[in-house]
Design a protein that fits this description.
Layout: H1 8-12, H2 15-24, E1 27-30, E2 35-38, H3 41-49, E3 53-54, H4 63-73, H5 84-93, H6 98-118, E4 122-124, H7 125-142, H8 152-159, H9 169-195, H10 201-207, H11 212-242, H12 245-253, H13 258-268, E5 274-279, E6 283-285, E7 288-290, E8 295-299, H14 300-303, H15 338-355, E9 360-361, E10 366-367, E11 376-378, E12 380-382
Parallel strand pairs: 2-8
Antiparallel strand pairs: 1-2, 3-5, 4-12, 5-8, 6-7, 9-12, 10-11
Length: 386
Amino acid sequence: MEIDFGDAGFVLDPYPRMALLRESAPLSRHGPTGRWLAASHAAAAAVLRDRRLGRVWRDREPTAIFEPFNVLHRNQMMENEPPVHTRLRSLVAKAFGRGHVERLRLRVATRAAGLLKEAGKEFDLLGDLAEPLAVTVVGDLLGVPQADRFRLRPWSAKIVKMYEVTRSPANESAALEASREFADYLRALAARRRADPRDDLISHLVGVGLTEDEVIASAVLLLNAGHEASVNTLGNGTVALLRHPEELARLRADRELIPTAVEEMIRYDGPLHLFARTAAADVEVDGVTIPEGDEVAVLIGAANRDPAVFADPDRFDAGRVPNPHLGFGAGLHFCLGAPLARIEAQAALTALLDHAPVLELAAEPELHPTFVLRGYRAVAVTTAAR
């Protein structure tokens, strides 16, 4: 079967059609895009772990127009293979060491509790909790001054529209403008940190000799991957919990389930649905040969609901164990920020349960009309029984 990634019905609920695709062909060629689609858990995991299938950055064309976007990605670790990937990842990884990330747990938990204390009985889960919490974490990591942090979310929200399979000219124009502004801001911030180093990632990257473009690319990766994923994990996951009230009650009764509930949030309706790789040679996956140079799109949401791996995959199970979801990827490009993302989601969920003995949707959440990055525009909730 053929999937139309721009179809409104598909974007609203992609899981039934992805299930049909997975059942008919775990790995198939998608005519409209010319990509291969990996829909089963086995095929997706094989693609993500096979070193012959890597990330090969190709500048968006025409390059004269798309250079502001290209310069943010050309030198990213996620868009490169070893040895460039190894060098960049090893330098950034120091900011995500276990000890450093654990030290952030109290800061994140305190911030989440403080945000909810300021919220009323009815509030927007995204605008009042998830977004400002994510901005705090990313801003602290990068060393963005408090006075400038209000600019991070709008920049990120515009830039990530470029990752979609289908894009409007207006979204492309907004993404290019945001790319220019973000790059200019980071160049200025890097110059300040070079002259006056602080205890932040920008100072560290400047100090270890990364080029200006590499610093910018590393920063935008942390902004987009960390911020968008964190916001939408909490938004999508909380909506899933509220639509499974028996699981929410189970979680309230047993807080030990919070870590497994967060993993289920990422599996059940995760924030990232497509991750592409390019074949450096002819590669056989699931009995199908992918020719050298062809792209494979891993459909993460389809893989994470594969009944061959997950029992009753269309049900949210707060205590699901084991849960080998692919929400953080796999192999060489496994998400570097996964430990911090887990801490952030666990802290936010804990604070939400503490703050709201009663929690219900106050209105039907409205999804963004995007597939690759899946999330809501707003999630209005109420702490008063209705």
